[in-house]
Specification:
Number of strands: 7
Largest sheet: 3 strands, antiparallel
Shape: globular
Strand order of the largest sheet: 2-1-7
CATH superfamily: Ribonucleotide Reductase, subunit A
Bound molecules: benzoyl coenzyme A, fe (iii) ion
Structural class: mainly alpha
Helix content: 40-55%
Radius of gyration: 23 Å
Number of helices: 12
CATH topology: Ribonucleotide Reductase, subunit A
Strand content: 5-15%
């Protein structure tokens, strides 16, 4: 079989000789990368996975048993919107671009490479988790997320190969050469170099970091570069499941924590072999603050340029009255003489922060659902998102220290309370000690409640993995 027959696509691959040639060279290296850096175990086993075959609702979620290295990573764009125009910035109302304009070539390539880099990075971060899955159901979800992040890499490589010539092909190779956490060749963004060595971190990552993905993709789906817009739109359909895995995963740990608290005479979920709510709060603080960094600086001339030139838009642009954003200002709290002072920033320079606002609101909805679980269990405890200035390493808050409720504090004060706010070595050791594989169909590890339902209408006790 020819390569292009094996790659599900709606980009007319068989007609595009140049793209086929580039992919033929890249694909064996991709598979080599997958086998080396993808899931540490289960590579030869049958996994109940969904594969996108077409972009139509009937075809984008085909469920079947697949061996992961044989997964059919495809290339999909949502159908074009006829006569689509750029909806914002300096070229508002102009037709969108089907090719890369010379003056935006470097910036676009950089955005696509940054996006592409996170996808394999997350697979690398998660590669050891298959050894300690809390259930067959969860292990299958991990693999679903992993193969789809692999497909998201394909999506960006398609753009590089198709629209960026030789340097695009070089970037595509380099996407397979960087490694999460590697001292010499790390991944581009910090969060994607943090180890994910336990399942609680995995659920936090898919809740908070994949959600950054959602918002970055929403911004890119507004791009004037139409192939990027259509590619990212289709990626968003898959992204929903990743966040579902995170939100329901943490929700199930929350539920189990409450059950174990109630079963213990000292209300101590830990001594019952669970993860206590205080530890959960610290993991939330850690992963949420790290993911906030991914939106870039609060005041950013890069973001202003991207908006002006139409490379990257606002989520829900149609809800704004002013699509040019040259006159407005945006309030941002900045540190001056040890205090937070509200300052007005030119609207375009605040685009990263405007996107971050949407992200914060989205997470608040998730937190409310977790707190509802706690309430239903009759436990008196509330999980909270820390203030967005807490524990940041990027942007205008990075050089300062804040408490989780957002008050400026000294470095000494922060260090004195670090262990109350962020996971300690002891917390991590406890969480890791619970990570023992449970793989009989339908059974769950003690520290996590079962899901409400199975995948694709299957029962929870369905055999989601079949070992050879
Ligand atoms: N780490 O103007 P600034 C996903 C750099 S997740 C390291 O503040 P700008 C996924 C920045 O490059 C979504 N460096 O921000 C999730 C700049 O460098 P230069 C991934 C950083 O430029 C889970 C400088 O700092 N997609 O899909 O607006 C699993 C000042 O930059 C960081 C994207 O990110 C950082 N956190 O950058 C799988 C979309 N933040 O110019 C997948 C593409 C900033 O001084 N990326 N810097 O050398 C972008 O649109 C933008 O580059 C950023 C913000 C959102 C990263
Ligand atoms: Fe992704
Ligand atoms: Fe994702």
């Amino acid at each position: 079989m020819q390569l292009f027959e094996k790659i599900p696509n709606n980009v007319n691959l068989s007609q595009n000789k140049q793209l086929v040639r580039a992919l033929e060279k890249w694909q064996p290296n991709y598979l080599k990368w997958w086998k080396e850096s993808g899931p540490d175990d289960f590579q030869d086993d049958w996994i109940y996975l969904r594969t996108a075959i077409t972009v139509e609702p009937s075809g984008w979620a085909q469920f079947d048993y697949v061996k992961m290295p044989d997964y059919r990573w495809g290339i999909f764009l949502t159908p074009p919107v006829p006569n689509r125009t750029i909806g914002y910035g300096d070229q508002s109302e102009q037709p969108v671009w089907q090719e890369v304009p010379g003056e935006h070539r470097n910036a676009l390539r950089r955005i696509i490479v940054t996006q592409g880099d996170t996808e394999p990075a997350s697979v690398e971060q998660q590669r050891m988790l298959s050894n300690t899955a809390p259930s067959m159901y969860d292990c299958r979800n991990l693999f679903q997320v992993n193969v789809e992040e692999g497909r998201h890499l394909w999506a960006m490589v398609y753009l590089l190969h198709c629209y960026f010539g030789r340097d695009g092909r070089e970037e595509a190779e380099e996407l397979l050469e960087r490694r999460s956490g590697d001292a010499d060749k790390p991944r581009i963004l910090n969060t994607f170099n943090e180890p994910i060595s336990d399942w609680l971190s995995f659920f936090m990552f898919t809740m908070f970091t994949d959600r950054d993905g959602k918002y970055q993709l929403l911004a890119l789906s507004r791009s004037a570069f139409d192939p990027l817009s259509r590619t990212t739109k289709f990626m968003l359909t898959e992204e929903a499941h990743h966040m579902f895995v995170g939100e329901t995963g943490v929700g199930r740990v929350v539920k189990r924590a409450c059950e174990l608290m109630k079963a213990d005479k000292n209300e101590d979920a830990r001594s019952q072999g669970g993860i206590d709510l205080v530890t959960l709060q610290k993991y939330i603080n850690y992963w949420y603050s790290s993911s906030l960094d991914l939106f870039g600086g609060e005041i950013s001339s890069n973001a202003a340029d991207y908006f002006a030139s139409g490379l990257k838009g606002r989520d829900r642009e149609e809800t704004y009255d002013d699509h040019i954003a040259l006159v407005g200002v945006y309030p941002i709290d900045v540190m001056e003489n040890g205090r937070l002072v509200r300052r007005e920033v030119p609207m375009r320079n605040a685009m990263n922060e405007i996107l971050r606002d949407e992200y914060v609101k989205d997470n608040e909805r998730g937190l409310a659902r977790w707190n509802k679980v706690i309430q239903e269990q009759g436990v008196d405890f509330e999980l909270k998102l820390p203030n967005r200035n807490f524990n940041r390493t990027m942007g205008i808050y990075a050089c300062f220290c804040f408490s989780p409720d957002g008050a400026p504090i000294t470095k000494e004060q922060f260090e004195a309370r670090r262990g109350e706010w962020l996971p300690t070595e002891g917390d991590r050791t406890h969480v890791r000690s619970l990570m023992l594989p449970v793989l009989e169909p339908g059974r769950m590890a003690n520290w996590i409640a079962p899901p409400l339902r199975g995948i694709n209408g299957q029962p929870i006790e369905f055999e989601y993995l079949r070992r050879v």
